[in-house]
Amino acid sequence: MQHQLVELGYGASAHGGGTSVAFNLQPRPTGQLLIGSSRQFDNRERELDLPLLAQMLDRARHFVPALATLNIIRCWSGLRAASKDGNPLIGPHPARRGVWLALGHEGLGVTTAPATAELLAAQILDERSPLAPDAWLPGTFVSTGGDCMKATLNITVDGQPLTVPEGISVAAALALTGDPTTRQAVNGELRAPFCGMGRLPGVPDRRRRPSGAGLSDPVPGRYANRKEPR
Questions:
Q1: What are the TM regions of this chain, as residue ranges (predicted)?
Q2: Where in 61-168 does DSSP place strands (E)?
Q3: What helix, strand, coil percent values describe the chain, rounded to 5?
Q4: Greatest CA separation found in the chain?
Q5: Burial group, residue 224, by CB count within 10 angstroms (0-12, 13-18, 19+)
Q6: Which distant-in-sequence residues (6+ apart) come within 8 Å of 72 by Cβ?
Q7: What is the pTM of this model?
Q8: Which strand (E) or helix (H) includes residue 9?
Q9: What angle do CA 94, 80, 212 make, to 5 degrees?
Q10: In contact, 179 and 197? CB cutoff 8 Å
Q11: Other CB atoms within 10 A of residue 179 CB
């Protein structure tokens, strides 16, 4: 395999509202194959959903029958950050001057990165945008004092105390530190986590959180360290 194969329904499932599977096969530089994918919304469980995993593999074998002859090395699940209406949040933070956000793309962050960059650059430079920016403004969901996010959480990121609104995405919370936000992938490369991180829970009825594994309930003094490999 030399090219990625993606089922047409993959994009549609990113904006769904239930549990779904869609075929996605990616060849890796190691010669291995990455097979996906599944989506679960509002799920706090950390463990793999084995019936859902079986559906995902059956779907993959439907498109590429030869996959049935291969051995599975490992399985994993992760968090995807998504907004309430499924659209990414792109634009200035409503409460932090100089902080610009581009997050909540769910599983389509890489696919939509060029348009996101063009839209964000136009806003920063105060130029005419190729897209209407209002639909993507973070102020739609990141409240500065409305009833959407009244409560706050006290967390620590890389030793820096931070007070964030309850329900804010983890990516947005990390952006508030003002430092470059990266993490180390299993192959040692640095990767930006914005595409695959969930939110600090606390308002489950206010925002949709797609997840194959969930964050635990928030507690005072939650600590995050971006320097440690994951």
A1: none
A2: 89-92, 100-103, 152-157, 160-165
A3: 25, 25, 55
A4: 56
A5: middle
A6: none
A7: 0.51
A8: helix 9-13
A9: 145
A10: no
A11: 12
Residues 113-127 pLDDT 10s: 898 999 999 999 988
Closest CA to 43 of 158, 180, 212: 212
How far apart CA 12 and CA 46 sit, in angstroms, is: 25
Distance CA 24, CA 81 (A): 19
Secondary structure E strands in the chain: 5-6, 20-27, 33-39, 89-92, 100-103, 152-157, 160-165, 183-184, 190-191, 222-224
CA–CA gap between residue 83 and residue 207 (Å, rounded)? 7
C-alpha angle 64-69-73 in degrees, rounded to nearest 5? 100
Burial class (CB in 10 A: 0-12, 13-18, 19+), 96: middle
**Of 176, 192, 197, residue with least CA distance to 100:** 176
Helix, strand, or coil (residue 84) = coil
Q: And the tokens for 152?
A: 């706050």
pLDDT tens-digit readout, 1-16: 888 888 876 655 555 5
- Give the model's pLDDT for residue 107: 73
